[in-house]
Batch of 3 targets.
Target 1
Amino acid sequence: MTSDDIAKKLGELFDFVTTNARLLSQKIDESCNGLRPWEIIFYTVTTTMVILATKSFLFKRDQSLYQRSKKTFFRYVKRMPVIRGIIKKELGKVKEFLSADKLFKMKPGMTYRMQLPRQGFTRSQILKEVDDYVSMDHPWQNGSVSGAVYYGDPELTETVSHVFKKFTWSNPLHPDLFPGLRKMEAEVARMTCDLFHGDPIESSGSVTSGGTESILLAIKAYRDWAYDNGVEYPEMICPVSAHAAFEKGAHYFRIKLIQIPLDPKTYKVDVKKMKRAINKNTCMLVGSAPQFPHGIIDPIEEISALGLKYGVPVHVDACLGGFLIAFMDDAGFPLRPFDFRLPGVTSISADTHKYGFAPKGTSCVLYSSAKWRKYQYFVTPDWQGGMYATPTLGGSRTGTVIAACWASMMKFGRQGYVDCTRKIVKAQTYITQELRKIENIYVFGEPQVSVVAIGSLDFDIFLLSSALVKAGWNLNALQFPSAIHLCCTMLHTEPGVADRFVSDTRKCVEEIMMQPKKKNTGSAAMYGMAQTIPDRSLVSELTTAYLDAIYDTSGSGQAKQNGH
């Protein structure tokens, strides 16, 4: 095609556009004939508002169109008088069960304190009342609890209690006042980086208050990194089995959460679907090692490769089992690489207060390079109180748990953690093998670390949960699909505990199979019922009622006034 031909084609295109523009303007003029100026303005503004509202609904970034459509539908349905009345009646029935009186039983004669005592208590009075409060606890010492307490050894308790006293009034916000505490915190982060093969110079980390904060900080870091790189609406891609803290972070930081389904056989995230979900707005990919519901390790190597290929940071959530998987090779249970040995892995979260056996209140968020950690910081240089900067979400923090965490890590050392890992994984393996021998239940996937998830195709699995509660056990309930799980700890490695769990499970299943279609009752029944409610806002309302009950002091017994 010659230059003359190109010029001719461009001329024809120009004539076409101008002709149609002229026709369009004529149509608009004709439609406005007879309209007064205010009417033209009114219709223009109204049409613009409708277009903007439609655009906002269709293309809002923090939730998918399906999620928004579903919420909108149920919001309007619930406004119908008949439906509203039915919902209010049924919710009222359930909320009666969700009361502090029914959920949290107190000892006979025990009441709530509503006001400060007129006179301060003596030390002996305080200790006596504290003993009464402690006596209300579930007997976790016999290994009947899933997770929650991961060690509980009296000698360790004595050691960390002594350390607590030394740092009772310390605050990491003031490292100039407490330089020893600053050194401890830096050492905890550095030693944990080393466990996950972080580069001695490049890798870095922070000590947080728990796994949720570690995850939130990683999300915040990658969101701000995305902002720096021109991404206006960041998105993160997670397995549907990833911890709820990722959904919490998406809510807090206004990030769109894309959840990827699991392989129905392995219960690992479907990496192919994860790949298809990546786009120019993706700010992070997530894999769990292991995930909380079923104890399965996601294919971290494949996720790392995706991150490298598309230039997306990869976070490995090892909050639950980080202080097990780091030692499993040495304990005789080799794993595929899951940490900073993989070039695509840019951050890891690992809880020291779980299998690190530190007191509750510490976790670590780790980065392959300090270039990532800087994005988690909050800095404001213009506050009247002076330049203000914090590395984590909190301002003032307690130094006691950091010091106690350091002491716990020092007490166990590498070999101590290896020995504990060996015992815990052996207990999980034994329980898994024995549960597979019991008819009418099955184990999810191939557990490798500490969690064993149980389901059934023959009866409501929450019947088993209720039966095991009566037998003295306290397990975790799961949903989508319905399941329960046992998280093995050092308490389950004590002689006879694993055998007792298997034996009690076998007996309970045998009893259930005498009436497998029997309806469940109590909290387990409510948990199963909640999965069938399509409007998840109703489930959220019930969950809110449970949270309200935690703070309720209007229940059983007469409240104590003025210390009497």
Note: The chain has 19 helices and 13 strands.
Target 2
Amino acid sequence: MADTQASNGLKRPYPQNGDQQDDQKRVKSNHGSPASTANGISTGKMDVTKAIAEARARAAAAAERLKASKIGAPQSPSPRPPADSNRPMSKLEEMRARVAALTGKSTAAAAANNTQPYQSAANDDGLSRARGGLSAALHPRLLDSGKDAGSKSALQTKFSSTSGKKGAKQAQAKGKKQLDLSGPNLDEFQHQNPYFDPSLGGQTATMRSRVPKQLKFNEKGKYIAQAASIRRLEALEAMRKRIAASSKKALIEDDVAEKKFIIEAPPGIEWWDEGLVTHPDKGYSEVDSPNGLKLETDDSLITRLIQHPALIQPPGDRLIPAPKPMFLTTQEQKKIRRQRRMADLKETQAKVRLGLIEPPPDKVKLGNLMRVLGEEAVKDPTAVEARVNKEIAERAQKHLQINEDRKLTREEKHEKLEQKKAGDAAKGIYVSVYKIDSLANGRHRYKITKNCEQLGGTGVCLLSPKFCLVIIEFGEHGNAQYKKLMLNRIDWKENSPSPVREGNKTAQAAFLAAEDEKTGVLKDLSLNKCQLLFEGQEKDRVFRKWGTRTCETDKEAMETLQRTRMETFWTMAKSTT
């Protein structure tokens, strides 16, 4: 039990007398090794001289191997120093020996600078545990033998900060030199190591000092010049593109102009015959052969089931209403007018600049004659005022003359109205049937006839002692206007005397007179009214023009309407109250 505790080196062993009941431990010495026991038994202390000899031997062997590798001679196994079973070499000593071998230091220098640091107990192996606070073990990276230069320098710094001070004091006390813990000489390392590549190392490996970057200000106008050059290049590129586009357009126009004069060759076979020929790629060359045409085959286009109906224009197409115009506000109308006038002014100015037209004379008025004429108005104001008044009168006369020339003649107005009527009738023909109790007032008959002619209507007006029937045909617009006339505008209760002209048989009828035949007083039309019996659309016009018929009996009215197959309207009017 005592031997095990003594070999540990981290705890003080119990006394050798076998009394383990006493928990009192021995007093620790100032140099880190356990104090001697009372019975004279002491722990093993490291032999400094022996450790230095071993380090020298290892350094010499490493130098011989390095020298043999340089001259290419075969390396002979160097004699290894006898291993000491009592105290193995520490990691720090191995590291120092390896550095000394790489840097090629002499054995004397290595021995002179190899000052023994803090040593552990005799039984400490120096690998798995360290002599520190709370007996903490070393980090695995500190135990690795393949450390890089950064780890070695860090370990040297650590030892120099802690145990280096104690080692220096002991070395001064014993008259020995202090251990050189500085890093390797990089210049010698670069020349001696054949595998060193300075391009792979950093600033520390190449010993290059960092040069501070000096401030360098841009010269005045540098970026302005760059921007100007960029703008010039962009302008040249844009001009190049314009020239290329214009030349390409000119080439295209020339090609189109040339193609207009080139007569294309006829195709080998027309597109409507491709489905009827067995081999369309050969053209019409096999038409005369028995199997050249596909007339009776299963995939033939001609069969007994083909029917070609007559094409009829849909009647609803002409009834499609025209698109409604977009209504603009007053501000929008002014804006459009202003834009149009501005475009016309720019066009006139361009023509004046090109010399195509003469520039217009100055528009002088009484308000701006002093500003326009200047000195001339001051010299002779009377003559200038007279000239300005003359120009104003000429401009007014020119304006009136332009309006007069723009007016349509009588024939042009008539033609324009006829075009409007034809366009209205093309949209669809509408038939309207009106029943009027009495047309004794001649003004009513005149309005009915005159509005029908003006609106381009056709039909007939049947005058009967019982009631009057009006059948009339119009376009869409004419039908709407005539409907307003018959139902709203005419006052059917009004009666006025009408002169009877000679030869007017219609006015001579007794039931059409405005006055009573016996008393000579105007007839009472307070109960007179107009009714809309029918309104609809038909395919074409039935009547060729407008006319008036006087029918004393129902038979005459039915015979008149039988020609146009509209006798049912008379029956409808009789049944309506």
Note: Strands lie at 429-436, 458-463, 468-474, 530-538, 546-550.
Target 3
Amino acid sequence: MATAAMAAARLVQRWVRSGLKLKWLCALTCIRNATTGSCRIEKVLIANRGEIACRVMRTAKKMGVRSVAVYSEADKHSMHVSMADEAYHIGPAASQQSYLNMEKIMQIAKQTESQAIHPGYGFLSENTEFAEWCKKEDIIFVGPPSTAIRDMGIKSTSKAIMSAAGVPIVEGYHGDNQTDQQLMEEANQIGYPVMIKAVRGGGGKGMRIAQTKAQFLEQLESARREAKKSFNDDIMLLEKFVDNPRHVEVQVFGDQYGNAVYLFERDCSVQRRHQKIIEEAPGPGISPEVRRRLGEAAVQAAKAVNYVGAGTVEFIMDSQHNFYFMEMNTRLQVEHPVTEMITGTDLVEWQLRVAAGEKLPMTQEELSFKGHAFEARIYAEDPDNNFMPGAGPLLHLSTPAPDTSIRIETGVRQGDEVSVHYDPMIAKLVVWGDDRMAALNKLRYCLRQYNIVGLSTNINFLFNLAAHPEFEAGNVHTNFIPQHSDGLFPAKEAASKMSLCQATLALILQERIQTNTFKALSHDPFSPFADSSGRRLNILYRRNLTLIEGQNKVNIDVAYNNDGTYRIQIDGQVFHVSGKLTTEGDITYLESSVNGILSKPKVVITDNTIHLFSMDGSVQLSSPVPKYLVAVDASGSEGAAVAPMTGTIEKVFINEGDHVRAGDPLMVMIAMKMEHTIKAPKDGVIEKILHKEGSQANRHAPLVKFVDDVSQ
């Protein structure tokens, strides 16, 4: 204890001589806490954005720690900026010039006299150079030592360390010879299918599967490009691809005194594009004995690199519950809330306390779990278009009410925009139940209450996934989505006549509100345009409406009754309809009666589109736009390959004059942190390349113009 106090006193002297006032105060705090070796953090800079920045701030506020936000130009009005005690602009929208700008972030940390930097996940969270820089500047990096980040961040190195420590690993190649020929020879020896993985990073970036020898070089090149773009390192490793494995990971935590514990496992098997989409804890069907062995192997892995802070050891598990080390994520995981829900812990609080020098709050013997938890990641993406990520405004956003068993982890509000510059995740819906079935029922119920208008989301897909009988049975694996695609992507059913009646009623009632507003403002209350009774230009109490669902048009005949009800006829079937629009907070409901059946769907009307949300699902219908309001499509996209979304052209494979066939790769586009290959929509000759490498293309912009191949 005396030694700790003496060391702190020497720090005081050095910092006083350098004139660093805040660090002097912090050192005094260190002296006061010399008996525990801890140094209280009073201000933390969060070097991140979105939901994780908001998540860290909530715990910081709870602990009485002031939070400093940084933000890019695109995020100046974002939720994490408004939540912080202080916020500072760090650069343009591009993450390389803002959230990855180490110099600027360090400058602000010094300017604000922040004692610590929490990197969240992604961005700088696993950057060895940044962690070392923090140490050099006497700023606490809320994460593991840079040596652990380096050893675990390079997958080939981590596997060698794990093998030496006795942790089981998957057969593969982790060598230095990175020539195409050597890698192909190793892949042939391992046997197909082969997993090609970037040695750095995570999140599915730089990862491809070569099912056959013929695919290998194409998949290798694609993985290298993405790895170079994401991690500035295109070195690859190869692994034997385990067919239909489970992805099981263990939450570990270490402190500066050599203590390490595991907080049980999470199952993250259900994925698309090698990225997790739904996680749960504990893993379904895992016995206490396997759970213990998993946890002990994870702690063994953490101790092998003297790990400090929150980390996740990821394993793949076969059908016999044999497990093999895959990688270690040296940061807080996106899915950490499910662990918190079953253990009753706050892992961000643990991070801040351990980073300040405190011992782990609990021993392994004191840790236990209760119940079951799920996390569903809600993304701006189109599951029906290969989960193509999107961007756009959140015109309407309503969620289930959070409580002790329901958490909404998000960084956006209604009216915000999901930016094309960053990850398309909107939120994480986290639920807890007494057992797996109770938690699953709650997840389904809450997904029906999570309603978004303005862009495509995966919410309906998540519901289909949570309702699938094989998922309910816990029979999960990484190939779950393609294996059960028929059930997860059912043919879209036409809107019921009940929904058509409700949509018609909502339009009429909305029209009445607008008419009454016009009437109140009008100087001519007798104008026919100030009458919502259905009387229009000698048409007495009857009207015809058309509603559109996809490519289908439905003609609807409406008769206005004297008692304020309506007689609606659809395809010869008559419905007696009545109701009213009510508002609860920011949400509008339609209290309706259709042939005596009462219901109360949520209703959102934007421009000419009606959205109905209920526990039975969602319905989207529109009314036709008059022809004189329809803009002429001047994109000139006929006979062209177009950009699926706004992004940057990374690579161009063709030249003008080339002959191509439908499906041939033309370009690679980077958008929403993903690589997209643009393929030829038809056979033809490349007439003109409209975008060069490095240029940005807007959504639906023509990229390549074709002419018919007359030589055929």
Note: The chain has five domains: 2-149, 171-240, 246-488, 497-628, 640-707.
